[in-house]
Every structure is written in C-alpha cells, then in structure tokens.
Amino acid sequence: MEQRSFFGDVIERAEWQRIQDLLATALRMEVRTFGPDGTELCHASGQSEYRLLLANSSSFREAVRMSRPLLIRSAGEQNEIKVVNTPTGRLRFSVPFFLDGQHIATIAGGGVVERPLPDHQVIAYAKQFGVDARLLVQAAKKLPLSSRQACLSAAHLVAALLDQIITAVENRRRAEIRTLRLKVLAEVGHAVSDSLDLLRVLDTVASAIPQVMLVKAAVVALVEDDGVTLRIQAASGLSDESWQTPFEVGTGLLGHVAATGEAVNVPDLLADPRNAYHAFDEHEGMRSMLAAPLRDGEQVVGVVAGFHGATRGFTGGDEQVLESLADFAASAVRNARLFTRLNQAYRELGVSTRRLREVQERLFHADRLATVGQMSTVTAHEMKNSLGGIIGAAATVRDQLHQLSDGDVRELLAAIAEEGWRLRDTIETVRSYSKPTHYGTGVYAAAEVLQDVVRLLRFDKSFRGVKVEVEVPEACSFRADRDRFKQVLLNLLRNAAEAFTGVTGRTPRIVLAARPVADEVAITVSDNGVGIPDELLTRIWEPFFTTKGEAGTGLGLDAVQQIVQGLGGSIAVDSEVGVGTTFTVRLPQASPATPTAAAATGTTPSERQTET
Ligand code: ADP
Ligand code: MG
Question: Which CATH class is domain 437-611?
Fold first, then answer.
C-alpha cells in the first residue's frame, strides 16, 4: 500500500520501515506504523517485552486491533503527539504525520517503564513537549534531499522529540521515587533513633527496600559471633522456608559482599559464576540482585540485598539508596551492640537503670545527628529537582505565553504549585527530624549557674580539702539546657578533684571561670592536679578509657563531649603534667539584649531530671 509523502511523492513501505527501525533503535522500544485506516504499513520494529507480550497473547491480531483505535483516534482528531502510560508499566506513544491537514500515517510504539505515572502528568508532559507535526513536515521540506534522505531526517526529528518526551517522563518518575526514598529514609532514621530493638529496625529497613527500589524481595543478614555464619534477621517478600537459609561469609554472592565489603550488582543470578545459592534463588524466583555491606568501621557486620524477579540491571540511584539503608542498618547494629556492652559494664559496676537510660539517650542523640547528615545529601538532590521543575515551568510560561492555550498555562502553573508543595514537604521532613527535641535551651546568667553547682559540691566527699573558686563577670550569660550543663560541670569538677589523688606539696585548687569570647561564652575548669600526659590527650575522650582502674568508668568525658555538642558548643583541653589541667567549654552567648531579663528565668523546666 502506498501513501502520499510530505513531498507529494510516495513513501513506500520500505521507507516507513526505515523510519520505524530507526525510531525503534533510538528508543529501544517496539515501534509500528499505521495508515489512516488503521492498517499496518510495515512490519513492527524493535525487540521489547511489549512486542513479546503481543506475540504471546492469545491472539496477536486481536491485541493489535485493540490498541489501534486508541492510537488512531487520538492522532486523527487532535493534531498532537500522545504519550500514554498503562497501569502495567508500559509507555505508549503515537506521533501523527499530517500533510495539508490530511492525516497520512501514525507512528506508534511502546515499551516497559518501571513505574506508571498518573495520566494527567503524562498528558501535561506531552503537551509541554508536543510540537505540531506539520512543523516536522515543514522542517523536512526545507531540506533539498531525496525523499529517502528526507524521511530519515524526519525520523531523526521524531526520534529526538520522542527522546525528549521520554526523558521528561523518566525524570518525573525519578523525582517521585526520590521523594518516596526520602520519606522512607526519614522513617528508618526515626526507627534507628527511637528504638533499641535491633530486629525492629532491621525489619523497617527490609520493608523499606521494596518501596524505594521497586524490587520484589529484600533481606538483611548479619554475621554471627562465629564470624562465618551469615543469617537472615529481617526480610520482606521471602517465603518462610527461605528464612532459615544459612549463608556463609566468603561463599556465594552474599558471602562475597560480607567477606570483601564490596557491593555487588548482579543483573542475572543464574549466569553469575560466583553464585552458590541457586536453590534459594530458584525457590524464591529471584533473577537479579543488588547487595551492599553493613559496615562498622573496617568490619563488615552484615549484608543487605534487594531482588528482582526478572533479569535486569540496577541503576546508580538504586546503589546509592541501598547503601544509605545499609548504613542505617549498620548504625542500628552498632548501637545495639554498644548498648549491650554498656549494659554489661554498668551491671558489673552496679549502676542504676537511670544512668543507663542517660547513656542510651546519648547514643540516640549521636545517631540522630548522623542521620540528619545523611539525609541532607538526599534532600539536596530532591530540592534541586523540585527547583528545576519550577524554574523550567515558569520559564516556559514566560517565554511562550502567547503560544500557550489557557489550559496549558493552567497546567504549567499547577505543576509549579505542585513542585512548590513538594519542596515545602521536603524541608518540613528534614526540619521536623533535626529539631533538637531533647535539649531545652534557656538563657542563664553564668554566675548564678556556676555558684549553684559549687553549692552542690559542699556535700561531696571528694572535694574535702579542695579550694574551689568562682570567677565570673556579672553580665555574662549563655544559652544552654540548664540541667545538662550542670551535668557537664559536675563531671569536669569531679575529674579535677580526682586529679589531686597522690599529689603532694601544693594546695589543691580548682578555678571555675566564665568570660565572653566573641559571640560565645568560654567556661573553664582549671586544676593544679597531676596533669595529663600529651599522648593521652586524645584518648581521654574515648568511652571506657580511664586511668583510675576500678574507681573509674571512663565514661565521664565521653558524656561531657556528647552533651556539649548537643548544646551546640565545643570543648577543649589543655594540660601539663605536674602543673595542672584546664578544660574549656564554649557555648553560644545569649543575645546582648536579653541577659538580665533572662537571668531571672533561670529555672526553665527541663523534661528530664539529671542524676547528680
Ligand atoms: P573517669 O573519670 O572514669 O576516669 P573520664 O572520662 O571522666 O573517666 O576521664 C577519663 C580520663 O581522663 C581519666 O581517667 C583521667 O586519666 C583523665 N582526666 C580527666 N580529667 C582530668 C583532670 N582534670 N586531670 C587529670 N586527668 C584527667
Ligand atoms: Mg570522670
């Protein structure tokens, strides 16, 4: 069958075939060409799941007939390119070709996309990128070429156009997935911070993976104490029997990740020679896998993996998100193990559960900060994406206002508003998460707080015979959580008092001072005790480091450091053996306008009591 071409010539089947083949290659999709009466002008091009689906359906002919009315109707009635998403994840497009208002053919095609978009979004994109097909014809007409070359040029134009549409659709899809990932990361972050129940956290991670990576199943496995057994601790989309599968460090793909600490991206599990667990994959119908290590410093403590039921590659984005989730899981493992260790140490020392809760809280706080740090990288991408959408849509309205219909403008404005809300949500998510809910801050007169602490010391045996002096200018106030700050001072003062053990020949003296430095207040605790050897100056901050044997816990300075950081301040030490030690805490200074008024509110309630 022959068609009139753009040039008044004839486009033969062979020419349509060429255009179609080119498009199929460019788009990696199934492409067909229909005449205005709905007959196919040449053989379908391209190999895709879409084509296989048609070929395998009960009646191939019927399937073609069913898809045709949609394609042709849209092409015949509206002079526009159409892109349709089917609920099963296929993308269909049709590009009508017109000559003098006469519809001469439609090139249509389809392929698989990972995630269908709502139709209104797709239509908005098609409109945004849709070009009057006659423009294509005119562009092709200007080229003084043979009809065959002209066809190819036209095909190039169509291919470029479709590429744009598909990129737009893809970008949109990615933006949606990113938002979802951000939400899930925030949820997982909360679970890590709010629960010591390791399995619950690992469960959250395992159920988050299918949502953010669109995989069919996920597992989190931990290396057991023997250092060899790799056991599934949490999973989603896995049958009951497979839960019991014991993996081994160094064997198979998961074992490889556990042994090397390297992530693996396996597009085809059956074809990978490293795979040692075919039975598992077959039983579960797993065909491709992405796995990442759970790292605790240099050590690999476990593995997290996502599985597809079909052979396909994972993207760089998938790898990134799986690694973030692996980090969350690893920090949960670290927390749980550290807590168990602390618990034991404390039990041996006979310390109250109240102290335990303090330590636990401290661990959570540190993790919360780490989580916020991790979230900010994800968030930056997400925000940049939303801004890109807003700027792009706004620029389209500005530059093409006269070409756009009222409906188009409305849709673009709606897109701007939608992206704006998305941006706002992103900011809210992070803000609500990083808010320091545990630390109440008030403004306090330094003199009052320091005197208050010194008063407490009168009842403390270790300060007998020690002279404690307070040096604070009247108008000096800082911003902090009062009870926690007292805890910091008490720890530093007690260490100072203990620094006189065995020191003879001088009067034990501690000076507690505060002075404004730039926009901070420096609070110092100085003693003339034994001093700290240079080589220990960094080690003293480590949890469990003590030079006091049975009498010390080695947790004081670690707690001090955590609290000071939580208050938005910093701490430093300066010491000389045989001369003495000075610890300096820097806290944000209260604004100069408020110190006296605020000093009166010195007893701001704090949610938690501090044990002293
Ligand atoms: P602990 O008090 O249980 O030993 P800390 O974390 O409070 O644990 O302190 C760790 C170590 O730091 C102490 O064991 C001690 O060696 C050293 N240290 C801390 N403060 C002083 C100080 N003022 N003078 C000398 N050494 C100190
Ligand atoms: Mg101490």
Answer: alpha beta
